[in-house]
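Exercise 7. Predict the structure of Aldo/keto reductase from Acrocarpospora macrocephala.
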Amino acid sequence: MQYTTLGRSGLTVSRACLGTMNFGSSGGVASCDETEATRIVDAFLDAGGNIIDTADGYTGGQSEQIVGRAINGRRDSVVLATKAFLPQGPGPNDRGLSRAHLTRALEASLRRLGTDYIDLYQCHQWDDSTPIDETMATLDGFVRSGKVRYLGCSNFTATQIVESQWAAQRANATPFISLQPQYSLLARGIEAEILPTCRRHGLGTLVWSPLGGGVLTGRYRRGAAPEADTRMGRLKASPLPMARAWADGLLNEPNLDIADQVVKTAAELDTTPVAVALAWVRQRPGVTSVIIGPRTLDQLHGNLTGLAIDLPPEATNHLDEISRSATDQSRMGAEFPGRPSAAT
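Solution. The predicted structure, encoded as C-alpha cells:
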C-alpha cells in the first residue's frame, strides 16, 4: 500500500480509500450486509489501507453504525471520514450546512460511529441557503473542541472551494484540506478548474466513482438490459428518479466506447478492466486517494490489485486520448451533481 499526505496537512492517508456507501440496506441501491462489510473493512485494514469514508446519509445511518462496529478495537489506526448535509429528518433545519444542523449532525454521527472524534469531517455538498462564513466558523468550533481533527468538502465547484477557504482565512479558522470530486475516464470535468484550484488552495482529493458507476468494468453491453445484480441494474430498478437518471446518463454510446477500450487494454496487459480503470485514475496528477466501494470481499481484492499496478505510458496515453475524444456533452451524463444515494 502506498501513502501520501492529504492536502496541505500532515495527515497521512493510503492511496486507496474504502468507501462505504454500499454498507447496509435501507431500500436504496446499497446491498452489503454487516457480516460482509466487516470482512471488507478487516481485509482493507490488513492490506495497509487506513482511510475509511462514510456519510450520515448513507443507508439511513446504517453505514456509519456498521463502520463504527467494524473498526472497534482498531480505531487509532483508522483515518475515519464522514460527511454531513443530507436530510436527517422532516424539519427545515434537519439538513444543510447551518450551525443548527451541523451541530446536531456531528453529535449523531459520533454516536452512530461509537467514537469521540472524527478525523475528517466533510460538507457533503454546497448549501446555497447558509452563508459560508457560518459554516466555516461552525466547523472550526468542532476542531477546537477536539471532536473533529480535519475538515473537507465534497462535490464543491472551484468557486465554492475558493469562497470556503477565504471565509476560513477571514475568521482565522480551520480551512479545508480535502475535496471529494467525481473522477474517472468517463468524468473528467474536474481537470479544467477544480484540480488546479485544489492545488492552489491546499486541498488533496479523494476521488469517487473511479469505475464510472461500474461501466468501466466491461459488464454492460449495447442493447442489453443490465443484469439485476449489477450496480446499473439496481439503479435502473430504483424507485428514485435520481438513481434512474444516473444510470441512463452513464450507459450511453460514448461511455460504452471508452469501456470497450478499457477491456481491450486489459486484455493486452493480461489484467482486468477494473485494474486498468483504477490504475489510470490513481496515476493522474492531483489525485491523492481513490475511493473504492466494494460490495463483496472479492471486489475489494480486485480493486486493491488495480490500485497496485502501474499502467505503461503507451496505455495511459491511449486511454487519455480515447476518453478525451468523447464530447463534453456526452460525458455530462456521468457527471451528476450528487450521488444516487443522496435521497436514501
